[in-house]
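Hello forum,

I keep getting stuck at the same step: I have a sequence, I want structure tokens, and every attempt I make locally crashes halfway through. Rather than fight my setup again tonight, could one of you with a working pipeline run this one for me? It's a single chain of 638 residues.
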Amino acid sequence: MPPAERRQAQGDPCAFAPARRDPDQFIPSSIDMRNQLPKKIRGTTGCSNPSANAGAPTQPNRDMSSTFRSIARRLRYVLGLGLLAACLGRASAALNSFASVDDLWSGFDPRSLPLDVKVMDDKEGPDGTIRRIRFTSEIAEGFAVQIAGYYGFPVGAGKHPAILHIHGGSQIASRAYVEYWLRRGYAVMSINWGGLPQGDSFPAGTDWGPLAMGLNDSGSDRRMAPDVRSNAWFHWAIACRRAITFLELQPEVDAQRIGIFGISRGGRLTWLLAGVDDRIKAAVSIYGAAAVEDAYSVSTPEEAPFTPEDLAVWRATLDAPAYAPRIKIPFFFLSAADDFYGVIDHAESALGQIPHAQIWRSYSPHYSHHVEPAQSASLPLWMERWLKDGAAWPATPGMKITLSGANGPQAVVAPGNAAQVRSVTVYYSTESNPRARFWRTAVARADGSSWTAALPLSAVNAGLWVYANVGYSDGLSLSTALTSVTAVALREANVRVAETPTSLIDNFAAGMRDWYYPDASTDPLVSDKPWMNVVDGPNGGKALQGDPGLKQRWRFATRKITDPQWRATAAAGLKLQMRADGPGSVLVLVRTDPGLRSEHVYCAAAHLAGGAWESVTLFASAFHDVRSGDALPDFTAI
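Reply #2:
Ran it on my machine without issues. Output:
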């Protein structure tokens, strides 16, 4: 029996069996936290030295990636795609005439084949009509591939602007999004391109037939033989383009005002569609992978799942950077600053290849695969701007980093429409791994038409990454482009370390600023809810509590301890102050090298009596690898 399964059988709460995961799924099915957690828990965190008594000063923590570390994040898609890749053939037959995006799409006309639409039902509501439909996407070996989905149109005569929603991996067509946009006066379509079961309410779902291009068809998205047109991404894009054909043919739709937005894998498809389909008026990619390194993470043991020859064909025909220079429409990238899939560095590179200035982005700090309401509010404003001739957006705010001067590095932000600006917040990090950056927060002060923030550093040997969020009075939130400064440039400018190490990780005086909820929903707007609350803590201080609406499904996480200011020494311990309603255990997870091949997750259980504030100190010896069971040598390994 493998180590993890054996420890599970022995009742070890920190033993997690590896499972195959899709990149959009984070929670291994072998974990049930409901029997392990107290009903309510709140906490403050810090580090303690084992040689000190309870009242002695604590020692600094070194590079632990979390305190209350999310199980949802621990194995994510490293196992999912890594295990799949081992089963793939590595044929190089894709070396053929398909050497560019033009070659790939040569001869394809999204309007030529009859859609043969089948309406399965038709329900009217106060905001409009919603239909469950199927249409023909393509013909394969005589089989008409069927794509299922929802189509809705508003009450009232006339033609309406239309929106296509493109779901992510492990997802299906979304009635919730159809209802959301219907309430705002749009015709809207959401298709099930992935072919997963749509549910008992759907009489008939998506059927890829002999093509076997569904999300459950292992390896279809890496298939390169006999040529790149055998790859599922090509056929998924065809399905989306055929959905646009459906929309433009509807009598309720203004075919000149069709917008699209896609989430995760759907966000990646958005890059492709925006580069090849001139019927689209405006596009929003939400966490859409902008490079093959994101779509198929090189953190897997098998590296990228292509031969060098096939990889070259992929990059020329199906990788997002091949489409970015072709995008002629307004483009909005909405994402999380630590996203594992729409990696911010790669996204910025691709955005820089779009050959016009109508490009915007908005990033939520700390999260991966979730955008906070402050940023997601920009999505309906985007559709109003381009599909309903709404108010013009300010230009993407500019930012300049200055290194010289008595105050050390500074960020100077120059937003458009300065009179409408209500906040400017700068986020900066010294972590090179884009999936694991802790973003320090600096509130900028107004200085005429610009805003300036000091950036005190705790390290200067790895470089500096900076972006800013500008909030406007109408709810719009726009980010600057990500700016980086090399370690060489910092050294040449004689930039000095200005922050000293501290043992206190957080007392929550700044609330939730440095924390996030790893189980937060991937879908913006339709699933926003409170995740965490700041409450009264011990000794008159503050603490963090999972929102009561989450019941026992709470997880808190931070990357704060990757910053040198909060890193631990080898002998340090992790001290937690917690209060629970009743007895139970809290699992604390820390990670090494998140998102890389060398990633390991270590777990320790903190046991609580409940009823009052309790202090628990965990030393490195209490943490064990969730797969192998090996002990954590010391906190310097984190």
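The chain is about 15% helix and 25% strand. If your local run keeps crashing, start a new thread with the error log.
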